[in-house]
Fold this sequence. Notes:
With 126 residues, the chain is mainly β. It is 7% helix and 39% strand.
Amino acid sequence: xxxxxxxxxxxxxxxxxEAELNGSKTAEAILNALPISASGDFWGDEIYFSVPxxxxxxxxxxxxxxxxxxxxxxxSAFCIFWGPTPASVGSECRxxxxxxxxxxxxxxLDSLKSLSKADVTIERIE
Length: 126
């Protein structure tokens, strides 16, 4: 755990997840914009939604781990990955195009599979 870690709570349609944002510039910008509430969309095993943050590509990744929280620069979108997307090969988590990894879900990851709606709120845990 680095001293720059930031804990957040993500609530998706009433289900709570604990998460941690990393020390990247993009994660810092998202942290400064909290709380954020949005209506998300599903793209395979990914939820994404627009956030009021503009960030340039920052060590963009084409494939991410399950539980990854990321920012998609072309759409100013926050993304939550837990399995394959339509762009995936096999069971990998592949975004539509490279994303900036901003953190990870630290608890409740398996509950993402059961969601059918994505009303999302992200807030800081003090």
